[in-house]
Amino acid sequence: MTRTTGSTTLDAQTTTTLPGAEVLLRALVEQGVEVIFGYPGGAVLPIYDALFKQNHIRHVLVRHEQAAVHAAEAYARSTGKVGVVLVTSGPGATNAVTGLLDAMMDSIPLVCLSGQVPTPLIGNDAFQEADTTGITRPVTKYNYLVRKPEDLAPAVHEAFAIARSGRPGPVLIDLPKNITVGDAPYVEAHAVTPRTTRMGSQPDRAAITRAVAAMKAGKRPLFYTGGGVINSGPQASAALRRLVELTGFPVTSTLMGLGAFPGTDQRFLGMLGMHGTYEANLAIHGCDVLIALGSRFDDRVTGRLDAFSPSSFKIHVDIDPSQINKIVHVNEGIVGDVGQIIDLMIEEWEKQPAYAHKSDLDAWWTQIESWRALDCLRFGQDKAPDAVIKPQQAIQRIYELARQTGRDTYVSTEVGQHQMWAAQFFRFDAPNRWLTSGGLGTMGYGLPAAVGAQIAHPDALVMDIAGEASTLMNIQELGTIAQYRLPVKIFIINNHYMGMVRQWQELLHGSRYSESYSDALPDFVKLAESFHATGLRVTRLDELDATIQKALEHNGPVLVDICVAEGENCFPMIPSGAAHNQMILGPEQEASSATISKEGQMLV
Amino acid sequence: MQVEVSGSAVISLLVDNESGALARIVELFSGRGYNIQSLTVAPVDEHGHTSRVNIVTTGTQSSIRQVKTQLERLVPVSRVVNLTAEGPYVAREMALVKVVSSGEPRTEALRIAQAFRARAVDTTASSFVFELTGSTDKLDSFIELMRPLGLVEVSRTGVASICRGPQTIQNF
Ligand SMILES: Cc1ncc(C[n+]2csc(CCOP(=O)(O)OP(=O)(O)O)c2C)c(N)n1
Ligand SMILES: [Mg+2]
């Protein structure tokens, strides 16, 4: 076929020709790449050789290609840069697939470079050949098979533009070995016109005016913010704060959006959705104007669709036009960068006549405060010194004690109950600090994500809130942590169960705990020690704080095995297929909730 | 929730003529559960850099709107127009229809072919291959009429479409 990238303007006089691998690295340097997460193999040896001979780019050797992608995702999410991955052909590329889909679902900008057999061998079932572009097409935003040397540099430049533009995502470049060994012309980024430029459009000012008019008319308004605000950059989070300040409206956030608005602010209602707070879910059910900013009405958020926020005027701001009206029909869709649109909303808010429903808004806040008074996250911890630790207690204390250190803190999680408790109990002041697998829910994300975050922020406190089952899915990354002396703190909330599975089995499958017990677990303390890390274990309440403190104070990697109560469930919970006003509450709240939820229903 | 009626739509795209572009489009339809009734693709510019793809799909209005925005996200896709929604357009396809018969059915087949302005592009003592161009409906009815007259095989191109008047896909 004819060409694989956007148009290039080649100036014959100034063209430099270099071995393909060097062209590749030069393009990466020009794109500002500082770190690559990767794993070598036959098809990428020329690239590894070129890496060996230079000092601009640091390579971090992971222990599994899936982990390389998760590490790059966390690097990207915590820095705002594009994460870069390098894997070999065949099994190297297929191992990366889960990570690529994870990045796709959570809109994380990545460039994944994969080796490929030489072009003359493609299609012959050569050793370690895989149809990598075919396999990764549905899990990437775009991918390339570079067949001609002159396409190499333009493909790299365009890949970065695609990864970071619009709704960000992963881009893969498949590099046949003859392309990286043979000579290729170097083309500078400015000489390449990426095809992303076709897509840009100006935000619809009239729609913004109408949206703000609807906000001004709102008596029970609510902001529902998502990962799009984080992707838009720190200035979007700052703009969101100003808009909330200006309007006085309450804010709830998706799992991916945590940190965009300060979690400790009184106007923050906590996360919404399946394990969201009581007040956030009842507010979304009862609001009359819903302003969705960079969120995508995921099914974990909406619950039963025909009962989702039934009486609200819906405004949806998203950079991706295909998200608007995809799941929920909205009254006003605005396409564009959410940060820029929030700025325009602020401008418009100040221009339009003053908000005239202050007393209704006050009544709405009174209602919300009455929901908040239920204290839906409260749990019953036995206070005896030798009491079994509740998982919520462990996570809450990790949060509080880490906060007391005053250090800049990054938190990754695995997937399961511990992830939801972490989302509930951790309150983030700033964006880009919360690293979790939202859309795909990939067990095994947290440990490599901690690696990526610590590489990006060597002086920060990086913690992984983990489950014992998830951790084992990428436990080999303890080797990476040891090699680079990464002082990450891994807290395993060890409930001896795939807790989230166990919870669903208890609530929906008659307590038949089919294959969800974590049998034959390793001794995590010894496991940590064998990987040259410090291992700690705590089993009693009175040792919890001291053990967490000790882990936080230690200046090397620490793995803490926190043995917690086995049967705890994560509440509130909206069972799938239920509406937001049909939450299941914890045992602590059940008694009082009946009356309050009736009140809630009366309101809406 | 109101129930939306399903209908068919002709979607026309301009795409970069690169390997994988068609796969991306087809996988978008299959991966998201949309249906493709027919699909045509061929290069249309002088250098062969750009191909035009015509897809006939069925769905509710909102699902077809979704398809369109999803297609617009694809990097090699530079234009997407839902011709059915955007106003008058011409849609034509070609069919090759093989009829094997003799005696009265054979003469009847030839007569109908003449009425439809189908050309016999291959003739043997026992068979015809008719070539027919026209709207999908016209081809459908021709094929229906041929069925009792010895129809044994059909090959259709799928729809090529273009909007009427001076308007082009570029300036939608
Ligand atoms: C790769 C993968 N496989 C399976 C699942 C389904 N799943 C979701 S949560 C979970 C249990 C996680 O157990 P653990 O890590 O111990 O966390 P806990 O829920 O106990 O806190 C499982 C199996 C998944 N999300 N990802
Ligand atoms: Mg567990």
Q: What's a concise summary of this model?
A:
The complex is a heterodimer of chains A (604) and B (172). Chain A is built from 23 helices and 20 strands. In chain A, strand 6, helix 6 and strand 7 (170-176) form a beta-alpha-beta unit.
Model regions low in confidence, pLDDT < 50 over at least 5 residues of chain A? 594-604
What composes the largest sheet of chain A? 6 strands, parallel
At the first level of CATH, what is the class of the largest domain in chain B? Alpha Beta
What is the CATH superfamily of the largest domain in chain A?
Thiamin diphosphate (ThDP)-binding fold, Pyr/PP domains
Classify the fold: give the CATH topology of the largest domain in chain A. Answer: Rossmann fold
Described by the principal axes of the CA atoms, the overall outline of chain B is: elongated
Query: What is the domain total for the residues of chain B?
Result: 2
Overall average residue pLDDT of chain A: 95
Q: Could you say which structural class the secondary elements and strand pairing of chain A correspond to?
A: alpha/beta
CATH architecture identity of the largest domain in chain B: 2-Layer Sandwich
Number of domains of chain A: 3
Pathway (chain B): Amino-acid biosynthesis; L-valine biosynthesis; L-valine from pyruvate: step 1/4; Amino-acid biosynthesis; L-isoleucine biosynthesis; L-isoleucine from 2-oxobutanoate: step 1/4
InterPro entries (chain B): Acetalactate_synth_ssu (IPR004789), Acetolactate_synth/TF_NikR_C (IPR027271), Acetolactate_synth_ssu_C (IPR019455), ACT-like_dom_sf (IPR045865), ACT_dom (IPR002912), AHAS_ACT (IPR039557), AHAS_small-like_ACT (IPR054480)
GO molecular function, one term (chain B): acetolactate synthase regulator activity
Function (chain B): Catalyzes the conversion of 2 pyruvate molecules into acetolactate in the first common step of the biosynthetic pathway of the branched-amino acids such as leucine, isoleucine, and valine.
